[in-house]
Amino acid sequence: MKSVRENTPPTAEETEETVPAAKGKGKKKEQGGKKAEAPAPEAPGSEEEWAYEVAHADASTDLAPIVGRNLRRLRTQRGLSLERLAKASGVSRAMLGQIELGQSAPTINVIWKIARALGIPFSALISTTAQTGTRVMRTAQSKRLASHDGSFSSRALFPFDEPRRVEFYELRLAAHAEERADAHPPGTMENLVVTAGTVEIDRGEEHHVLATGDAILFEADVAHVYRNTSNTEAVMYLVMTYAETVG
Q: What is the pLDDT of residues 59-92, one digit of tens each?
């Protein structure tokens, strides 16, 4: 997990594999008056089908190339094609290709799906080169990930330098909004405290209501939901711990 980050851009061959075939608009006629055959549809290749996987405009766009390089390196290390990873993660092949090229910033949920399919911590996809010594992370320079509609955002309160076994996040959820999270790897624990608003947490069949100041610890290896029942934005702080050490 702590291997050196590769900055090698995709080769022409890999780029051709990654980018979905363009849909034929305004088909041209062949010589002799015959229409050229329309290219066979490639599922899920249309932008409409994977647009929901793209993060809101408020997300940090400079994370896109970082996630793209890490995804390409981790995928190729495992000998996975884009098609196989798409089937394993539930993320469209077209979107995976856009991420690897650094052309689209994925939503939080999409990154989680990819991380789970690859069997890695969330931070492995957003990490850069490791640095040593004391680190101060200024609010103005923070990296934020967001849901497609921007109602949910996550700010990492740890350096994006290497995969970690313990991760610390600030979460913000708009009034009367909810965020659905897929199951994380077995043994993953979430320890969350609400600092503003009232939040409902659904874990499988469990239902918990947390007021400001309340905290919860639960196993996050099943699907779960964060729901803000307040009339104002809810703010939470989350410590996520993985069962296995990273490295």
A: 445 678 888 988 998 898 888 999 999 999 999 9
Domain membership of residue 123 as a residue range? 49-128
Q: Which residue has the tokens 């077209």?
A: 94
Does 180 fall in a domain?
Answer: yes
CATH number at residue 206: 2.60.120.10
CA distance 119 to 115: 6
- pTM flag (> 0.90): no
Q: Is residue 40 part of a domain?
A: no
d(Cα 128, Cα 2) in Å, to the nearest integer? 10
Round to whole Å and give the CA distance between 29 and 229: 57
Q: Taking Cα atoms as reference points, which of 226, 238, 181, 223 lies closest to residue 201?
A: 226
Residue 5 has what pLDDT?
32
